[in-house]
Amino acid sequence: MDKKNRTYIRVAILGVLLAALVFAVYTSFVKDPNAVKVGKEAPNFSLEQLNGPAVTLSDFRGKGVILNFWGTWCEPCKKEMPDLQKQYEAYKDKGLVILGVNIGESPVTVEPFTKQFGITFPILMDKQSEITKLYRIVPIPSTFFIDPDGKVQEIFLGPLNEDMITQKVAKILPK
Amino acid sequence: MDQIKCECGHANPVGTMLCESCGRPLELEIKGEASFPDMRYEGMARRSQTYSRTIIDRIWNYFSSVKVAIGIIVIILVASAIGTVFPQQQYIPVPVPTEPDVARFYTETYGKLGTIYYTLGFHNMYSSWWYVTLLVALGTSLVICSLDRVIPLYKALSKPRVNQHKSFLKGQKFYGEAELPAETDSAALVEAASAALRKKGYRIFQNDQAMMAEKGRFSRWGPYINHIGLIIFLLGVLLRNVPGFYLDEFVWVREGQTIAIPDTPYYVKNVQYHTEYWKEEEMAQELDLKGGAVVKSYQTDAILYLNKNADLPGANPDLVEIKSGPIIVNHPMEHEGLALYQTGVQEMQLGALNFVLVDKKAGNKEIGPIKLDLYNVPAEQQVADGVKVRVLDYFPDFVMGKDGKPATQTNLPKNPMFALEVVSEADNASEKLVYLSGSIITEKDDSRYTLEIKMPDLIDISGLMVRKDKAVPLIYFGSFIFMIGVAMGFFWQHRRIWLQFHGTRVMLAGHTNKNWYGLKQEAGAMIEQAKLPIAIEDKSKA
Fold this sequence. Notes:
The complex is a heterodimer.
Chain A: H1 3-29, E1 46-49, E2 52-56, E3 64-70, H2 75-91, E4 96-103, H3 107-117, E5 123-126, H4 130-134, E6 142-146, E7 152-157, H5 162-172
Parallel strand pairs in A: 3-4, 4-5
Antiparallel strand pairs in A: 1-2, 3-6, 6-7
Chain B: E1 3-5, E2 11-13, H1 55-64, H2 66-82, H3 99-119, H4 129-157, H5 166-171, E3 174-179, H6 186-199, E4 203-206, E5 210-215, H7 222-239, E6 246-254, E7 258-260, E8 266-277, E9 295-307, E10 319-328, E11 333-335, E12 338-359, E13 365-373, E14 380-384, E15 387-395, E16 398-400, E17 406-408, E18 417-424, E19 429-436, E20 439-442, E21 449-453, E22 457-469, H8 472-491, E23 495-502, E24 505-512, H9 516-530, E25 537-538
Antiparallel strand pairs in B: 1-2, 3-24, 3-25, 4-5, 5-23, 6-22, 7-8, 8-9, 9-10, 11-12, 12-13, 12-21, 12-22, 14-15, 15-18, 16-17, 18-19, 19-20, 23-24
């Protein structure tokens, strides 16, 4: 074997090994390839409303969407509800949609709760917590800000207040 | 000049220790018998040790070093051991929803060392970038070390040479020579020696004046075969990270519930759960269990469905039954590499509350039964003609909130509280009732209606582990190849015996990579059978 050939073979073998390294390191950083990420498209889904027909996330293309995961047992969720409602009223005519995904509760639990807080934005019932798992929700409230192209602009864990919502909504309102 | 010319005229590449053609030791300083080259690679040049001109050569040569390989292995071993000192993040026994919670867990549980452990990232060691880099480095070292040694070795062994140079024979640990009477028929002796060794299973290469006998050459490939096995094994481990190759999920399924298995298009239904206990007469000896019982089996009767409408999560599933049957510990339900294992159970959980509506004003007359399914609460139900019960509010895990209002702690029905309204259409009246912790609270003291509490429906909730690991066959295959390699290298030896006649002198040498005793036995038998007057000089300690 002459030296040139040997170099080519070495380059080829080292190249394959380098590819393996890149792959291994990449997958070690991206532990969950299905996780929802900022800049990526929000996974589409369809859920029934508390008092209404099923809605599909992709139906809201062209609008800014706040996707809020909550439950009646969660104190911080209770705290942010009035602020979400207030901002919904302020921005719904400018192209904002708020979808409140309730995690696995009965309508008889959710309905009195939404009445108590005067919620008018759509409440989606994730009966089997399927969408909650799809979005890898751990702490609640968790809120996703989705732009008119369906891309996630921001993920916020924990309760929001009015100012924070105003500031984040500005990023997702249609122009 | 990148060649060394041997006295026999053959041009060897730099780094060669024994001439490729005649076997003469090449480097002057190693011509002494005591420092005869190691026979492991047959004295062939490992080019990686001599050429390092380009960056490619340098990287190659670095990984070609066995010292480097051992270094990598030691680092991996030490790191792996450190990773077991405190639990890895996924095995933390309490919920740690956010990163600060994780940090707090290590600090609070293990003190200063825990903080250091967390800060250095050891809590996620086995999937950290540097750990997988080490694994790939080990793979690289395996590939390059093997290639660099197996190729020259193969070249050397595939051309068995009968006429090795005298110095090659003299250099062997197993060597003997003698002066023969002038009239000796050397060709006949070669023939006799060959015949003796052929019977022992040796392959014979011979001419009139010399012979080389060889057996078990394939055992020299053992280490390389087991390296191939290790590389396949590592590839299998790497493949687990390819989407779709590996899945490890856990779902709780209530009796009667059909639930989606996360990240798959499958649904599973828990038809019924059942724990079986050993009966007393089944036990081998009498045990005083003090009223306890020993579990014989945990079993979920399940149905696996495929959702044909899986493209849109959350949409109404279009389920097709795939399989049904029992899931017992160690006997999972399997379908196309997906396995559902019985791993947990919560028995006797509240499923539904049962009541009978009683009219106190009509002499405690029973009006009709009420069932409140805690997982699917009916908003309204007809109890009897003209009497309805409405659910006004439901708190599955009741607690009195800080604001003095009722609230729920979780979405699980651990302590259900109901606010009900009984509506009587006949007299157009309604009355409110509250159920909480086994008691009924009525709106007024002299209320008309009350509820008689009946035995609630109890259900079992089965915990199923869902696993998929498509890399397992590859990992087993790698391990199998590894074992073949180990067996080849362990249980067979590469034995060679050279016999040469130079005029009236006879020279005999032998080499084996292990089990010198076996070689001596076979060589001794040959000397006896062929009646060779040689005394063996044994330089081996084995």
